[in-house]
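Give me the fold.
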Amino acid sequence: MKVVILAGGFGTRISEYTTRIPKPMVEIGDRPILWHIMNWYAKFGYNDFVIALGYKAPVVKEYFLNYYALNNDFTVDLAKGDIEYVNKKPRDWKVTLVDTGLNTMTGGRIKRLQEVIGDNQFMVTYGDGLSNVNIDSLVKFHNESGKVATLSAVHPTARFGELDIDDTSTVKSFKEKPQLETGRINGGFFVFNPEIFDFIEGDDTILERAPMEKLVASDNLTAYKHDGFWQSMDTVREREILEEYWNSGNAPWK
């Protein structure tokens, strides 16, 4: 099954990085967040990726064109022009890179991939969010639902710190932007049947609006409830949070 990653947005809320590179190429540790997302899917055996590009598409294309050299040691014979790789670290990933337009909306990007996807079930997620959602359980849940589409319903992270205050006004605990235990939002990590294309009109279609409304109206959308880790990367501080997780050696998505 193909995994589509939406990687074409402008990333204006994290412009400290995205004036130079697209948001999915912002690094966590020494790897783009896009790589982390792909690595999580690959853990479950899903390694056929389709990257929907837009803003600064050449940056992503160049990364994958040079991926083998960037991630392996090698010896160059300058006389012959030969390259011999040392300590190879191969990945059995197939990556299809498709420029889906600079100003195309999320639904439109998926629609533009219809010929690449064909008449097959596929997965979709955003190129700026990490989670430890169990992909096998997600796919199984979707198939058992009989619906056209499944989204992962996650607990959002609080915008502000959370205080636990006792009756004497003493602060008993402080958590900076904890993951909330109540309420759920769309966290991406979708599974779609090919009928999803019938719900998307064109480039101007925002996936999260008309298509989702039509799916709900036709009783064709189900939610996989994920209670574990989920974190988007919309701000510099959120990137720093993900970086702290990674550097700790205990990143939930590692």
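Residues 6 and 126 are 5 Å apart (CA to CA).
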